[in-house]
């Protein structure tokens, strides 16, 4: 379990480590310094210790370097991370070593029937509906609907409207729990393969 000491990177690594430990798995924790260009010492240590899989809480730049340098060292390391790897910049940095890298991201909204019209309009403008695009579109729909129902731009009233009922969007119905998190089904595991992202079935 690696993290870059950032709030986001350490936070996701802490959650994953806790869940693995609750499932009876042994977890070894290690942090690394973000922004470095050479992670060969870290890679060598993992290779020496026989680490076969590493979950990394961090950003695509460093994860790409770690993946590439692990492959160059013949470490036989499988890497899993979260949504920062949903960018072609990761595969550009990791190169061929990106193949087989796993990460979690939200379900592909282009698979929803509700997204067909918005995806077609984006495509006709030479824009992609992939990645965060339809999620951003849905966020605007959710906000606009909540403001309309609240009849005001007042934050607490809009927040109450957000939590009061599900809102139909291009990604399907969106509803929020008491913490304000999206209560819809969460994440899918994806894999990099030949410079494209594919869902792991």
From TrEMBL:
Any coiled-coil regions, as ranges: none
Pfam families associated with the record: Peripla_BP_6 (PF13458)
Keywords on record: Signal
Leucine-binding protein domain segment(s): 4-192
Gene3D superfamilies: 3.40.50.2300
InterPro entries to which the protein is assigned, alphabetical: Leu-bd, Peripla_BP_I
Protein name: ABC transporter
Family: Belongs to the leucine-binding protein family.
Keyword Endoplasmic reticulum included in the entry's annotation: no
Alphabetized SUPFAM superfamilies for the sequence: Periplasmic binding protein-like I (SSF53822)
């Amino acid at each position: 379990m690696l993290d870059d000491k950032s709030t986001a990177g350490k936070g996701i690594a802490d959650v994953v480590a806790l869940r693995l430990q609750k499932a009876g798995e042994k977890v070894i924790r290690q942090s690394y310094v973000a922004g470095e260009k050479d992670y060969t010492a870290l890679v060598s240590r993992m290779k020496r210790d026989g680490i076969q899989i590493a979950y990394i809480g961090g950003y695509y730049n460093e994860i790409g370097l770690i993946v590439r340098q692990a492959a160059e060292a013949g470490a036989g390391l499988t890497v899993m991370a979260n949504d920062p790897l949903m960018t072609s910049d990761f595969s550009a940095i990791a190169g061929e070593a990106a193949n087989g890298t796993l990460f979690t991201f939200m379900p592909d909204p282009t698979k929803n029937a509700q997204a067909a019209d918005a995806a077609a309009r984006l495509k006709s403008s030479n824009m992609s509906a992939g990645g965060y695009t339809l999620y951003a579109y849905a966020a605007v729909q959710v906000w606009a609907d909540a403001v309309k129902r609240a009849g005001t731009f007042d934050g607490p009233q809009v927040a109450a409207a957000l939590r009061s009922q599900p809102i139909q969007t291009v990604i399907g119905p969106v509803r929020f729990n008491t913490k304000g998190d999206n209560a819809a089904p969460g994440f899918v595991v994806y894999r990099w393969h030949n410079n494209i992202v594919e869902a792991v079935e």
